Structure formats: structure tokens, C-alpha cells
Amino acid sequence: MPWAPPSALLSYYFYFMALNYVWVGFFLVAFIVALCKLIFLGDTVVFSSMMSGTFDSAKTGFEVALGLTGALTMWMGLLRVGEKAGAIRFLAKLIGPFFCRLFPEIPEGHPAHGHIILNFSANMLGIGNAATPLGLQAMQSMQEINPEKETASNSMIMFLALNTAGFCLIPVSILALRASFQSADTTCVFVPIMIASYCASLCGLIFVAIRQKIKLFDKVLLSWLLGITAFVFFMIWAFSHMTPERRTTISNVESSFILFSVIILFIFGGVIKKLNVFSVFIDGAKEGFNTSIKIIPYLVAMLIAIGVFRASGAMDYLVAGFDWFFHKLGVNTDFTPTIPVAIMKPLSGGGTQGLVAELLKNKTTYGPDSFVGKLSSVMYASGDTTFYIVALYFGSVGIKKTRYAVGAGLIADLAGIIAAILISYAFWH
Question: Around 130, how many Cα atoms within 13 Å sit in the side-chain half-sphere?
């Protein structure tokens, strides 16, 4: 659990209670489905399959967590170098004029501006451990100027909407997860993730801006939005007009080049700052190692529940239902195995990770380099966990009336999911 003030602990409690219901629900639904299959279909092996699934899933969860260790250790070490080299401050300075116009009710020069910009800079670089304390500080600063202490202010809602959209330049978690399942090309999802998460952020931003009557036609704001959006549409257009082989080749080269360039910039920045780059890397790597160890119980728990749900046949029925529905609409249904990921995404980060891991681990059915494996990876990283973020940040300052914050977060989530599907079809189908 990241650092949080005592007032945030209650929000954690309610979040984990919701997660508890989801987890228990997997087992109860699996039991009911299996019982029906035994009674009505004469399936005498379903319960033994479910028991085998629990042991197999527990083993897989442990192996996945161990597989994550190397990748997380590497990335957390490199990100610590970037943080110490001033990457967050550089991004904050770069995007400052844009963000100041999104929070017009915050007085010029107020500390909240700095906390907000630094929080988003850390999130964009994938440095979650730095982003969370900065986000909590931003909420505290905004609460100081909030006239109604139990009601979310406009600035808080905009802050939450952009956080739940989760725009990230370096999606560490999914890259590490794909590496742990021995993907032939771990970074091929990098560009699609950037595009999908930007679409989520843009939809969340526009929805809140319209509700708050923010001047979207401001010269600075409009130039940023149009510039980035034009680049994203150009990328989609360019890739959609390439052959599948050329798309794959360019996407792989581009993704790897960008990521390695970032690594070099971090290291070079550290040298310029006269840091002991190796020592700083080791400090961050230790944190990555500790993180990978801490997630073992959570990952095992979620994979066991999902394994039972799948072994009972409930997952197949769920996917088949969506497959039938979209087939009736005349839509290509290759994406339907990822729908459970889309449903789980706003509710639980651990649950979503478990569902994605379930799709990536079985190379016979899907695997990390299949269309479903790539799409689920993009979907996983196209946004953040809405209910967790709302519980954490609003709970930290005692906000009870969230107004339309949850709706804004869910709209951003939906936009990210739809964008992930469309972009994955454009890149790999």
C-alpha cells in the first residue's frame, strides 16, 4: 500500500471490501455454474477440474511474480535514475502552461499547481510510488481552497478524471508482465498503449471541461490538444495503410527505439547531474524487487479465483454471450475474449492483471504474441482503476459528495477500452 494519511485509510477499507465482493463472487458463481453442470449436464469432472485449476493457478501466480522480478527491478532502477536526473521537473516545466488552463479556479502561484503537474509528470513516466504522494499532496492543497469541504471541487474532479485515464509514456507493469511470459516482442504494444491512453485522457478531459465550462478554445490549450490529437490520428492513419508485416516491423522498431532512447536520456541526465548513476539505479532496483515480492499474495489470490471461474465454464459462457451478441450485430468477434478484462478494469487493478495473465500464459489458446494477448495488454495499460483512485484521493481529504467524478472516470475508461480495440485491429488484424 502506498503512503497515505490516516484519513485515507477508511477509503482503502471500502475499496478492499469491494474487491472482497468481486473475489468471493468469482467462487460463488463458479460453484453455482459447476453445480448446474453436474446436475443438469451430468458433468462429473467439473469439480475436479476446478480443484486442479486452483493449484495450477497458485503455481502460475507465483511463477508470474518471480518472472516480473527482473523486469520490475530493471525499470524501477532506470526510473529512479530519471527521477533523480530531473525528468519529472523537466516534464512539469514542459506541460505547466497546458495544465494551468485546465484548473482555472486554482489561484496563480498556489502550491496545488506544482503538486498536480508533478503528479502527472511522475504518472507519465510510470513512477507510481512518486506519483501517489504527490497526488495526495495535490488533493490536500486543493482542499485548502475548496469552499465546500465535503463536496468535490471542479479542480478535484478534473484531477481525478485525468488520473483515472492514466496516460503513461512508459507502461512498466504490462511490459514486465509480457516479458515474464516470454513474449517474442515485449515492446510491440508500446505505441498502441500511448495512443489508447491518450484517447482515454482526451475524452475524460473534454467531458469534464464541457461540464465545467472551461474554455477549450484557449490558444495554448487548443494548440496542445490539436497538436497531440493530429499526431495520434496520423499514427493511426499511417499504420492502417500498411501491410501487416510492415506494421509489425515499424511498430517494433519504433517502440524499441523510443524506449531505449528514454533510457539513454535518463542515464545521460544522471551523468550531467553528476550522480552516481549505478548507485541510484541500485536504490531504485531494490524498490522494484521489493514490489515484485509484495504482489505475490495478491496475484496468487486473483489467479486462483479467475482459474476457478474459468474451470467451471462460467468464463466461457460469459465470453460466448458477448460473442453471440456482437456476431448478431455483424461485428468481428475476435476481441470478445478480452471483454472480462474491460469489465474488471475500473474495479480492480489486481483482478485486471490476473485476467490478462490468464490470457497471456496459455500459448496454446492465446499467448502474449497473439491478437488477444496484444489487445489485452493495450487494454490493461489504457487507463487506471477508477474506483480505487476515487476511494484513495477523495477519501484522503474527507470528500463525501463526488458529484460527477466517477462518471467522468468511467467515460475515460470506456474511451480507453474502445480505443484499445480499434487501435489493436488497425495494428495487428
Answer: 25
* 379 grid coordinates: 487494454
Find the helix packing angle between 314-328 and 9-40, rounded to 10°.
90
Task: Return all residues near 413 (Cβ < 8 A) that are at least 6 apart.
Answer: 164, 165, 200, 345, 346, 383, 386
CB 357 within 8 A of CB 65: no
Higher-confidence position of 96 and 31: 31
Q: What is the pLDDT of residues 234-260, one digit of tens each?
A: 877 777 677 767 766 776 676 677 778
pTM over 0.85: no
367-389 in b/e form (b: 16+ CB < 10 A) is bbbbbbbbbbbbbbbbbbbbbbb
Instruction: Give the Cα separation of 347 and 340 in Å (integer).
Output: 11
Q: What DSSP state is assigned to residue 189?
A: G
For 40, residues 6+ apart whose C-beta sits below 8 A from its C-beta are none
Between CA 32 and CA 308 the distance in angstroms is 12
The one-letter code for the residue type at 116 is I
H or E element: which one contains 390? helix 386-396
What is the C-alpha to C-alpha distance for residues 134 and 117, in angstroms, rounded to an integer? 9
Q: What confidence tens digit (pLDDT) does each residue in 377-391 have?
A: 999 988 777 877 777
| Cell 474451470 belongs to residue | 311
